[in-house]
Amino acid sequence: MRVLGIETSCDETAASVVVLDGCSAPEILSNIVLSQIEEHAAFGGVVPEIAARAHVEALDGIVEAALADSAVSLDEVDAVAATAGPGLVGGLIVGLMTAKAIAAAANKPLIAINHLEGHALTARLTDGLEFPYLLLLVSGGHTQIVAVRGVGDYQRWATTIDDALGEAFDKTAKMLGLPYPGGPNVEKAAASGDAGRFAFPRPMKGSAQPDFSFSGLKTAVRQAATAIAPLSDQDVADICASFQAAVADALGDRVDRALARFREEFPDKASPALVVAGGVAANRTIKGTLEALCSEAGFAFVAPPQKLCTDNAAMIAWAGIERLRAGMAGENAADFVPRSRWPLDSVSAPLVGSGRRGAKA
Ligand code: KG4
Ligand code: ZN
Predict the structure, then answer these.
(1) Which of 198, 255, 276, 360 has its CA 20 to 30 A from that of 249?
(2) Nearest ligand 1 atom, CA 140
(3) Do 141 and 360 form a contact (C-beta atoms < 8 A)?
(4) 194: buried, middle or exposed (CB in 10 Å: 19+, 13-18, 0-12)?
């Protein structure tokens, strides 16, 4: 099975070809990702209209490059898989329309993929992980804990009631005058900071509700920064270190609960695993906290390579293969309309206040 994947739901224009041959491990034949960070940096965040236009300009070339890199012709592809949601609708339209056109011209089936499913199934592409497992998705648009039970069978156990975690990093960076994207810059500044200087709140810690919240922490950072302004480099470093410590602590508390729930719900699972995905998973303090929690709870800690943790099209092509293999590719998606909101778990109700960032939270 060879699938061409296309991803345009946020600020990465991406295309990839993934192959699964018989019983051998799947292989990523090409994985092209064009980040639009520079186009959005001046605005301190992703501007949807700029993103959509940039996708239009880049996508044809990116698809061509992905096919050329893989040495697979369009004729040899079994299906085209494209992100159809959730995400910024302009970008989704560009990616899905392009995929529809390619599929129609080459007479191939089109598979509409939920972006979150791409993240959820990546660990099976990279590590051959067996169902069920637990997924922590922490990016600029999502903060979720999901029980991944099978292809198309997901249960969201926790989500954010306000900001996504990456968004909290980005907003904190902006407040402190650090450049976009904020996460890596907050982490860099934190390295020379004193994490004990500011006692920031640990939102939701100990709460019976399993969800996340970060807006209160963001407000506490703003108040602390305002109180001691103008900020020296050391002040910024100390705030970043204290913020990061609060985040790791709060996140750890939520994840710990989920690990315990997983044990309860899947008592027969011999070697349970926690998978992390999303840009924030690159953060070493957070990674260290999660690793320690997993080793204490007897969970394997699976962190796919960073390039496959952040937005990419290999995960979309792979989700297409998983769906083809499971006989769940659906009707040819020629009529599928992009969905800016498309929960992975259709059973869990959306939380009041979630998705304030817009499309993806
Ligand atoms: O998964 P991603 O590349 O894109 C989506 O949001 O879909 O995640 C980007 C987010 C940004 O908010 C960025 O600030 C955050 O991940 N991030 C980090 C780090 N690297 C990226 N946050 C904390 N520490 C990092 N090292
Ligand atoms: Zn994503």
Answers:
(1) 360
(2) 6
(3) yes
(4) middle
Helix (H) or strand (E) holding 343: none
**Ligand 1 within 6 A of CB of 182:** yes
Ligand 2 mean position to 116 CA, how many Å? Answer: 7
Q: How many other C-beta atoms are found inside a 10 Å radius of the C-beta of residue 270?
A: 6
β-bridge pairing 143-150 and 300-302? unpaired
Lowest mean pLDDT among 147-161, 209-223, 251-265, 336-350: 336-350
Specify whether the CB–CB gap between 191 and 197 falls below 8 A: no
Q: Whole-model pTM?
A: 0.92
Task: Reduce the DSSP state of residue 107 to 3 states and report it.
Answer: coil
Taking only the tens place, the pLDDT of each residue in 77-103 is: 999 999 999 999 999 999 999 999 999
Quick one: tokens of 219? Answer: 């407000």
User: Coil, strand, or helix at residue 67?
Assistant: helix
- Strands of the 153-159 sheet, one edge to the other: 153-159, 143-150, 133-138, 273-277, 300-302
Q: Report the candidate in 144, 326, 172 with the shortest Cα–Cα distance to residue 243.
A: 172
